[in-house]
Structure to design on (312 residues):
């Protein structure tokens, strides 16, 4: 093996190794950021108003509802109800809804006129009602009909 | 989680309950123009109440302009003044803050719950406005607000029963 061959071997090895090293360095540098992102995506952190979080909440709810429907089909009505109850409780907690908020959302879904011109800020932030007019958004309608209107 | 991360997450979480600057500006402009539209209706209500109160010996400040509203009243023998002034609620709408008769003469406070506040912008209603103010006057005249001895409160409470 002459010098040139050794040189090109080393070069090739470096080429292969460089990306894993870069990835390890990136992971090391942004460890906390990545951990936060993963935690959010998994819906572990109960932060309201975060897009990735909302998606996972929706997924979780869909899963719960499917499970409940299946149980109902099998004739296990009370177990299905328990799942729906706990799911709506989770939704309420994660969206930061109070009892009053839930009552209001249900009244809105039944077609009542909004109590005031401007929607409550945290309901607007959760994407449930419109700021101007205080009406339910389409996402709000889905949440209320599926999870709160039991 | 260190203490600053904790504080940071609290600040971020509270943002969900607070309007952004753009939203606030949009709401404030709409509410202000609604308030200006309500001006004539409010003026007639306030002038009528001022007349009634003055006849009863009250001191009254009836200060309504297109910029805002301050309506205060006081009666000798009572803590005072009581009354209201217009303020923007933290969630956007223009509401009436109440002046604590036993506290500061100017500063007014609104309820954190927007549904318990009296709104004077888009959600203004003339009948509700009048009812709200007359109830406020009744509240001002409660025995608790009278500067007298505790024993005499009973006498006034009995008067209220009849």
């Amino acid at each position: 093996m002459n010098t040139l061959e050794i040189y090109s071997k080393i070069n090739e090895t470096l080429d292969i190794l460089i990306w894993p090293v870069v990835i390890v360095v990136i992971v090391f540098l942004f460890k906390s950021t990545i951990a936060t992102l993963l935690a959010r995506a998994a819906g572990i952190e109960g932060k309201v108003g975060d897009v990735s979080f909302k998606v996972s909440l929706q997924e979780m709810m869909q899963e719960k509802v499917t499970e409940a429907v299946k149980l109902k089909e099998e004739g296990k009505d009370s177990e299905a109800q328990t799942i729906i109850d706990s799911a709506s409780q989770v939704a309420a907690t994660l969206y930061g809804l109070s009892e009053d908020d839930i009552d209001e959302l249900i009244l809105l879904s039944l077609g009542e006129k909004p109590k005031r011109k401007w929607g409550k800020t945290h309901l607007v932030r959760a994407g449930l009602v419109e700021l101007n007019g205080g009406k339910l958004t389409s996402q709000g309608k889905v949440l209320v009909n599926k999870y709160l209107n039991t | 989680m260190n203490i600053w991360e904790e504080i940071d997450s609290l600040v971020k979480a509270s943002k969900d309950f607070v309007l952004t600057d753009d939203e606030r500006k949009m709401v404030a402009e709409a509410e202000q123009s609604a308030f200006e539209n309500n001006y004539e209706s409010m003026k007639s209500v306030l002038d009528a109440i001022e007349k009634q109160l003055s006849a009863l010996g009250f001191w009254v400040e009836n200060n309504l302009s297109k910029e805002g509203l301050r309506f205060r009243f006081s009666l000798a023998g009572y803590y005072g003044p009581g009354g209201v002034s217009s303020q923007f609620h933290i969630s956007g709408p223009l509401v009436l803050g109440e002046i604590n008769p036993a506290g500061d003469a100017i500063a007014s406070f609104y309820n954190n719950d927007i549904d318990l506040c009296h709104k004077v912008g888009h959600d203004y209603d003339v009948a509700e406005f009048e009812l709200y103010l007359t109830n406020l006057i009744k509240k001002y005249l409660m025995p608790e607000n009278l500067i007298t001895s505790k024993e005499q409160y009973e006498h006034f409470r009995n008067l209220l029963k009849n």
Summary: Chain A touches chain B through 16 residues (CB under 8 Å). The radius of gyration of chain A is 25 Å. Residues 1-41 of chain A form one domain. Chain A has seven helices and no strands.
